[in-house]
Protein: AIM24 family protein
Amino acid sequence: MNQPLAGFAPAPVTARMENHGNHMLKVAMQTGNDLLARVGSMVAYEGFVQYEPNPPAVRQIARDWVTGEGAPLMKCSGDGLLYLADYGANVVVINLNGDAISVNATNLLAFDAHLQWGVERVKGLAKFAGQGLWNTKISGQGWVALTSRGKPIVVDCGGGEDETYVDPDALVAWSPNLKVKGKRSFKAQSLIGRGSGEAYQMAFSGQGIVVVQPSEDSTDRLRVRG
Structure:
């Protein structure tokens, strides 16, 4: 192999999910240990891997996606190595190890199919933003891969009295046991002609983490117009 290219070869497998660089996910596939991944995220694979778009388990839960929360998913099964990416976004790999995480569906890349998951309304925000905010909650023993538009920051809320405030358009994920409430504000763009209307921050408190990306989701998830 040409020496300059040798440094880009994949490292030996040491876990079910691993990063290959900052922008690609490597998954060790095994028969009977299926994966749910964002449709279109496969960039390469080795071995024998099959794909089933919108499998029955996903269609059943997708009934809750009338709010727009949710991502089209495919079931991946087989043996080999699977590589996933999402338009060059940073990839964050998490071993839940019995814990849970609440994820913005646009930042959900892949997760073990045996994990418990579903779409839930975020409590404490409906009075601020009409129908409120819906997120995908995943829990159990297994792996989850998230994406971030740029290198994220993971804030440990620490269980103290101080609250952590996040623009919901930059929010990737958080610990679902955190308390969440909304706070009104005006975005700077409302003052310079790019839009109008109130916007909100989400205030988190309690024991847990919040994952924030350095780029706002253009869908503006909690804006109230009128």
Q: What stands out?
A: Residues 152 and 213 are 4 Å apart (CA to CA).
